[in-house]
Structure formats: C-alpha cells, structure tokens
C-alpha cells in the first residue's frame, strides 16, 4: 500500500500555498492603479498650494486685506477675495432659491405621487437635463434668460448679471436635488407610510408629516451637495454673470465669481511670474477648500444621520 | 398628530392644491428642457440679408443670366476671367491655391457657384434673424432689406449644414467658420482620456472591490475617490495647468521628442487632464458594477480550482462588462461637454490647423461654443447655437451607444 501513502504526502505538498508570481504582480499593478487617485489629490493640493503660497508671500500682500477687502485686483494691490466670494454666493443662492423648492417638489412628486407611466417620461427628462453640459446652459443664460429678464424689468437688468446666471444654474442643479430627494424619500420604509394611511391621513399628509421628516438627513445632504455644485460651477457664470470684482449685493447687476475670474484670467496668456497668475491659485485653493468641506459634510450627514429602521 | 383634524373637506382641498404645486414644479423641469431646445432651434435657422461687395453684372461672363442658371463652364470662366482681369479680391494667386485644393474642372456646379459667391462677389451677411422672427415678421424683414440694403438680397439660411461640420475654422466672419478642427480636437482628447482613465479606473475598482481588506489605507483611498468626484472641474484645470502644462511641459509639448515651437498647451495635456477628471466617475461606476456580481459566481470559479485573478478575469469582469461600459460611456459624455478645465490649461480660441497628434494645439466643441458665445457680433450666436446642436446630438448618440451596450450584452448573456 505504499503508493497510497505517497499520494497523501503529495496532497500535503499540494495544499501548501504555491507561489504565484503572476498573481502577485497583478495585485501590485491594481494597487498602483488605486494609488493614482491618491496621487491626484496630492497633485491638486501641491499645485494649488505652491503658487498660492507664492501669492501670499508677495510684497504688499496683507491677510487683513485678503479677508476683509472688498475689491479684487491683485495687479494694483487689491486683494479682497470677499469680492469674488460674495459674487459666488449670490449666484449660488439664486440657484438654490430656484432649485431647492422645485427640486424637492419634483422629488416628492416622483416618489409619492407619480404613476409608473409618468415617471417613465419624467425621469429621462431629468436625466437629459442633468446630462446637458454647463456651457450650453451658459449660452441659454445670455441668449434667452437675460433678454427675457430685460424684457420684464427693463434697464435695471444689466446685460451680464447675477440673477440670470443664478436662475440657469438652478435649472442645472435641479435634477441633482430632485433625484437625491427622491432617493431619500424612497428609502423610507413602506410600513411607516402605511401606518399613516391606516390612521386616515391623506397622501399629502403622509408625504409631508411622515415621509419628509423621516428623510430629512438625505434631503439636507442633497441641498448641501447642490450648493457645492453651484459654487464650483464655472461656464454659466463665466458667460453670464459678468466681471465686476467688487463686493456688490445687487442681483440685477454684474458680479464676479471665483470660478469666472479663474477662467477669464487663465484664458489669456499671463506670465507665470505675474501676481494675477499666482492669484488664481489662491482663489482655486479657497474654492477647493470650500467645496471639499461641503462635500464631506454632505457625506457625513448621509452616513451618520441616516435613520435606521427595524 | 395635531394637524390631522377631522375637517375632511378642508384636508382634501389642501391635498388638491398641493397636487397642483407638485405638478407645476414637475412642469418647470419639462418646460426648461423644451425652452432650451426651442431657443436653440430658433437660432439655427432664419433669414439673412446678404450683400455682395462686387456687383454680379460686372463680373459675370453672362451678366444677363441669373447666377443660379449659369452652366458649369460659365462658372469656371467667371472665376478665371475675374482673377486674370483683377476685377475683385480674387487674385490669380488665390485662385491657384483653390485649384491646388481641387482643380476647378472637377468641382461640382454647386461648389463652383459657392466659390463665385464667397470669392468673387464676396457676399457678406449684413443682418440675421431667428427662426421665430423669420416666420412671424417676414413682411417687415423684406421691407427692412429693401430700405436698408437695396443692393442685397434676402435668403433663408440654415446655420447648421454639412459644410459647417466639415469646414475648417476661420477668423473674421461668423458665417465662414466651421467645426472640423473642434470635432477632431474633441475626438483626440476623448480618446486619450479613455485610454488613460479606463484601465486605471477599472484596475482601481477591481482592487477596491475584490482585493482590498478593510484597513485605514483602503478606507482612505475610497474616501478620497468620493471626494475627488465632487471636486469642481475647474480645479482639475488648475492641476493640469500647474502639473501637465508647466511642470511636465517638456514632455507634453513634445520638446523631448524633437517637436518644436509649441508649449505644453497641447492635445496631450488636455487628454491627461480630462482623463484624471473622469477617473473617479469610472471607478465609482465600475465598483457598483462589480458589487452587483453575486458571490456564488466567484465561489463556483474557486471551486473548480481557478485562482483569484483567473476568477476575476474570466468570470467577474465579463459578467459586469455591460454595467462597466455603461458607466464609462456616462463618464465620456461628461468629458465631451467639459469646458472650464480646458480653458484653464489653455485651449486655442482660434486654430486654423486641425489638431493632428498628441503635441498639437487644440480646440474642442465646447471651447468653440464658449468662444463664439462671447463674440460681440450677433451672427455668432447662430454659429454657437449650431455648434451646440452638434454637441447635443453627439451626446445623445453616446447615450444610444450606452443603451445598446446594456441591451446587447444583456441579450448575449440571456442567450448563454
């Protein structure tokens, strides 16, 4: 019976972990792929920080002026980034005023009211709206919305203004808010709603008093993400919001935004050593930190405040 | 709850009112899309007043016949004689250039007639109207042309034409611009972006879904990818400007490969930038695709003795390919419409030579739309609208491809 013993010895040898250099090599390759995205982040931070630090170190720069000044024109010694931040906030707020109520209403309608047939038509419309490049919305803003506003309100409306850019930006982020709100509402368990119906509540009462409060965290996250998208949105404001880098609170007049300024300035052939070139990296860093903070907040809310049922 | 009172009629009325509110909101979405599309179409067609710089009767070899009824020979003769007699801006040198492109004798009659209009008569658009205006105010428009441009004539123009797609860019007049360079540039850049982002993205997704254990490094990679997906696209442009254009300038400009006289603002830099931009989107979509594959498939592969990579390569990837490709097409359609990062890294607003390789200067469809939208001359808004229609049709086409992937591969799977 010696051969059998031999076989079992072989099995033991077979069961030992065999070296597979090919498999290991592939795994190393895959780790390298995954690290590319980490490198991207490092690259973004270094790229922004490098020139931003040079900007902060230029003679004549003062942090006080940077944070409280109301006029941005680094070429002539004005470093007030508030001028650009207020412009960005103004267009973004107009966008939120358009997108939040309408987007929420669409979300509620889709998740609580719409029949399967209606959603089959509506959802593709929202998907198309979400898929249209922002440059197209920019064209729409200057060639349709601004003339319409001027027709309604006359000369008060400047050819380039925050209101028009904001409205169109609202249409751009509308699908995002609608679909995130729909997801949040859809995640509320049916049993909760059925309990409401069993108590004799109408559809509206269930939607507003049961589903909506239960989905609050998801909806807040959607709004924050929408705001972040609006702040980072570029082409609409670059075309339609104007280039007036001073603090101004008139939505009918020109403003200047962080993104719009970066696009306009970098589009020209400015020398690498000029203060304007370094300035756009300081703005970029500010923009990056603001949007990163908002995005992380949105994810945190979704992860930590999600209502867990059952 | 205290709001639930027995007043049934009032509650029903409130419910009905809100129903209307919800419907109205939904209509806002639909209406925005409809308005957007109509305003585009409105700008793509319409009347124009054309006026010739040189009178037709003075240059034609057969002045008593209308231009439309000239024969091919007469058209060729008209071109030749005006060039030789130096009657107009068409010099013999210019004619020789045109003949080098394609000899007059082999050109079609329509082509020759166009040459007569653009080269000899120097017909120019003096004023243009939108489709809506053209339809509703036709008599007023005719009146306007007769009083302001008595020598000109009115024509109905489609700004969107095959010629518009194939013509190279030219500065100056709106009507002489074409999209060829922009389309070629867009295709080049997208190609580079896919070649970079697809393998790296798929590799990252496979690592994160199939290999990564739950430790701090992998969690960091995952969180980082989600954060990257939310970074505004203009920031990627700044990354591209600082790293690809300036730091890696010698490589991206092709200087170390012997290419001369360019800077780093090339097709290569643009492709790299957009590749990095769509990477997180591709990774997240591919991860979703891999997550959807049931573990039973993996176990049955291990059960017959396959290694981890054999399982992934022969079973997991093919089974999730439809979703991975759909996600990739989605990422590509995002990249095609991207404008801001390309403006930042330095697209050329005006490009006479088509992009022909990695180290060419570039322009793309969205860049052209941006440039033309900023032009003061009102004719450019028609050209921009036509370019937008081309861009949107391209995007719709891509979505059709995505749907084809989904259904086609699904069918193939079902057939197995």
Task: Describe the overall structure.
- The complex is a heterodimer of chains A (310) and B (416).
- Chain A has 310 residues and is mostly helical.
- In chain A, 75% of the residues lie in helices and 1% in strands.
- In chain A, a hairpin with a 4-residue loop joins strand 1 and strand 2.
- In chain A, helix 2 packs across helix 13, helix 8 runs antiparallel to helix 9 and helix 12 runs antiparallel to helix 13.
- With 416 residues, chain B is mainly alpha-helical.
- Chain B has 2 domains: 111 residues, no CATH class; 236 residues, MetI-like fold (Orthogonal Bundle).
- Chain B is built from 18 helices and 3 strands.
- In chain B, strands 2-1-3 form a 3-stranded antiparallel sheet.
- At the A-B interface, helix 2, helix 4, helix 5, helix 6 and helix 7 of A face helix 1, helix 9, helix 10, helix 11 and helix 13 of B.
Quick recap of the structure?
The complex is a heterodimer of chains A (310) and B (416). Chain A has helices at residues 2-15, 21-56, 63-68, 82-113, 116-131, 134-153, 162-186, 190-198, 203-214, 216-232, 235-240, 258-267, 275-304, and strands at 72-73, 78-79.
Task: Looking at this protein, list some descriptive labels.
heterodimer, A: 310 residues, mainly alpha, MetI-like fold, two-stranded antiparallel ribbon, 13 helices, flat, B: 416 residues, three-stranded antiparallel beta sheet, 18 helices, 4% strand
CATH topology of chain A: MetI-like fold
CATH class of the largest domain in chain B: Mainly Alpha
Termini gap of chain A: 61 Å
Regarding quaternary structure, what we see is heterodimer
Our count of helices of chain A gives 13
CA gyration radius of chain A, whole angstroms: 27 Å
Assign an overall shape of chain A.
flat
CATH superfamily of the largest domain in chain B: MetI-like
Distance between the termini of chain B: 56 Å
Quote the average pLDDT of chain B: 85
What's the number of structural domains of chain B?
Answer: 2
Low-confidence stretches of chain B: none
List the uncertain runs of chain A: none
The H-and-E topology of chain A, N to C, reads as: HHHEEHHHHHHHHHH
């Amino acid at each position: 019976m010696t051969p059998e013993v031999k076989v079992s010895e072989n099995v033991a040898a077979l069961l030992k972990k065999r070296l597979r250099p090919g498999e290991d090599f592939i795994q190393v390759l895959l780790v390298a792929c995954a690290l590319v995205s980490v490198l991207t982040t490092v690259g973004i931070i270094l790229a922004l920080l490098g020139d931003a630090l040079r900007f902060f170190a230029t003679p004549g720069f003062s942090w006080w002026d940077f944070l409280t000044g109301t006029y941005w024109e680094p070429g002539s010694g004005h470093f007030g980034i508030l001028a650009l931040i207020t412009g960005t906030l103004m267009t973004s707020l107009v966008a939120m005023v358009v997108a939040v109520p309408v987007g929420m209403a669409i979300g509620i309608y889709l998740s609580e009211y719409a029949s399967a047939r209606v959603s089959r038509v509506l959802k593709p419309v929202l998907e198309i709206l979400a898929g249209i490049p922002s440059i197209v919305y920019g064209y729409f803003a200057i060639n349709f919305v601004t003339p319409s506003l001027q027709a309604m309100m006359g000369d008060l409306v400047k050819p380039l203004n925050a209101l028009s850019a904001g409205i169109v930006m609202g249409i751009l982020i509308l699908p995002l808010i609608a679909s995130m709100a729909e997801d949040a509402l859809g995640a509320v368990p049916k049993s909760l709603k059925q309990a409401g119906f069993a108590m004799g509540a109408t559809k509206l009462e269930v939607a507003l008093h049961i589903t909506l409060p239960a989905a609050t965290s998801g909806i807040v996250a959607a709004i924050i993400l929408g705001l972040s998208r609006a702040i980072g949105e570029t082409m609409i404001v670059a075309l339609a919001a104007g280039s007036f880098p001073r603090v101004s609170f008139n939505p009918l007049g020109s403003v200047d935004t962080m993104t719009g300024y970066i696009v306009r300035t970098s589009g020209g052939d400015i020398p690498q050593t000029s203060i304007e070139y370094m300035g756009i990296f300081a703005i970029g860093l500010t923009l990056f930190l603001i949007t990163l903070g908002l995005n992380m907040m949105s994810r945190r809310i979704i992860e930590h405040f999600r209502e867990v049922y059952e | 709850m205290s709001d639930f009172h027995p007043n049934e009629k009032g509650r029903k009325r409130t419910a009905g009112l809100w129903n209307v509110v919800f419907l109205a909101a939904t209509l806002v979405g639909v209406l925005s899309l409809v308005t957007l599309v109509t305003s585009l179409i409105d700008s793509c067609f319409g009347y124009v007043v054309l006026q010739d710089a040189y009178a037709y009767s003075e240059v034609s070899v057969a002045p008593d016949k209308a231009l439309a009824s000239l024969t091919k020979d007469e058209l060729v003769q008209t071109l030749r004689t005006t060039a030789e007699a130096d009657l107009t801006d068409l010099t013999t040198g210019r004619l020789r250039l045109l003949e080098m492109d394609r000899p007059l004798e082999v050109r079609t009659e329509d082509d020759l007639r166009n040459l007569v209009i653009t080269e000899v008569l120097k017909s120019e658009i003096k004023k243009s109207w939108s489709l809506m205006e053209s339809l509703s105010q036709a008599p007023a428009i005719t009146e306007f042309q007769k009083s302001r441009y008595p020598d000109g004539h009115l024509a109905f123009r489609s700004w969107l034409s095959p010629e518009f797609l194939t013509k190279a860019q030219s500065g100056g007049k709106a009507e002489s611009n074409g999209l060829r360079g922009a389309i070629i540039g867009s295709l080049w850049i997208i190609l580079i972006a896919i070649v970079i982002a697809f393998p790296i993205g798929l590799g990252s997704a496979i690592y994160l879904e199939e290999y990564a254990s739950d430790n701090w490094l992998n969690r960091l990679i995952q969180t980082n990818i989600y954060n990257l997906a939310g970074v505004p696209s203009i920031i990627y442009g700044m990354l591209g400007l600082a790293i690809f254009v300036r730091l890696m300038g010698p490589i991206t400009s092709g200087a170390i490969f012997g290419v001369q006289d360019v800077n780093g603002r090339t097709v290569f830099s643009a492709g790299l930038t957009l590749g990095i931009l769509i990477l997180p989107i591709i990774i997240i979509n591919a991860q979703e695709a891999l997550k959807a594959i049931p573990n039973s498939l993996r176990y049955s592969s291990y059960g017959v003795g396959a290694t981890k990579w054999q399982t992934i390569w022969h079973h997991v990837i093919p089974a999730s390919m439809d979703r991975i490709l759909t996600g990739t097409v989605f990422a590509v359609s995002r990249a095609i419409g991207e404008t801001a990062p390309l403006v930042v890294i330095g697209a050329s607003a005006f490009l006479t030579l088509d992009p022909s390789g990695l180290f060419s200067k570039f322009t793309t469809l969205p860049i052209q739309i941006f440039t033309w939208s900023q032009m003061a001359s009102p004719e450019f808004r028609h050209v921009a609208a036509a370019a937008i229609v081309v861009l949107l049709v391209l995007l719709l086409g891509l979505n059709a491809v995505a749907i084809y992937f989904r259904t086609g591969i699904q069918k193939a799977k079902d057939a197995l």
